[in-house]
Amino acid sequence: MIIRKARKLKPGDKVGVVSPSEPIVFRNKFKSSIRELEEMGLEVVLGENVFKEYRGYSAGTVEERIKDLNTMIKDRQVKAIFTSLGGFTSNQLLPLINYSAIRKNPKIIIGYSDISVLLNAIYVKTKLITFHGPTLEFGIPHWKKFTRDHFEKALFESGPIGKIKAFKVLKSGKATGRLIGGNLSVLRTLWGTKFSPKWRDTIFFWEDENITFEDLEHFLAHLKLVGALEKMRGMVIGKLKNIYKFKSKRRKANTVEQIILEATKNYNFPIIMNVDFGHFPKQITIPIGAKATIDTSKNLFSIDEAGVVD
């Protein structure tokens, strides 16, 4: 299998910013992020429609959003594409992305939340390593040294990312595989489509926010139905935000851990959780498509491959 990698970023590089999903809410945070990127020596160019708003929940029409994305993809001077924030409508763009141009001109593409849809679809269609990491409105404006250090290591250095510290072991074991994943709620819109990941020999990482325990059971059952649980080699769970318990007089409230263990009880892959990614300021940058290892006997989770080249 041919894996494509973009060139690492360096001062002086031109990078583009697009809004593929939700409209920008906090322009002050957005502008603060632009300054952060400029302080790294990057030249930032904005998509023509980056500040558009359509129906209150999309950053412009489908035509406007895909125009910006494909323009950045085709521009050989643009070395990376950053996204403003997540939302709900990235999947509308999938049939319209210029995948051929991505294969011919690989570049860094980064974001999280609803942007997970784009990142995984692009990896599936082109085998370009994409990056689950900070967006301009949520991530970069809040970042501390931890988040910035991981961001720079993933995008500005061509060595393996290495060990990821601090996590909880939910199920013991050892696994090696290629990383795929992102936000669980939106990723399920890919499953069963031509943009769905090839699950065999993968380590699936996921996070979520504002869902109920019933939602979580539903999503994990969907993973089983599409054959993902029997093919993946490991599972990495990020920081979960606002996961609401179901409570009634007739049913005791479970825990997230109990739900995950019950859903995966017939599978032997290792599961770790509370890794630093998700809808929180502290987050690592994860290269989708890179090789990784879990070995709970050594308290090890490592990203063994760089997502970029010199």
Automatic annotation (TrEMBL):
Active-site positions on this chain: S113 (nucleophile), E207 (charge relay system), H279 (charge relay system)
Keywords per UniProt: Hydrolase
Domain LD-carboxypeptidase N-terminal: 15-133
Residues of the LD-carboxypeptidase C-terminal domain: 176-294
Top-level lineage group: Bacteria
GO molecular function: hydrolase activity
CDD domains for this protein: Peptidase_S66 (cd07025)
Family membership noted in the UniProt record: Belongs to the peptidase S66 family.
Full protein name: LD-carboxypeptidase
Organism ancestry: Bacteria, Candidatus Portnoyibacteriota
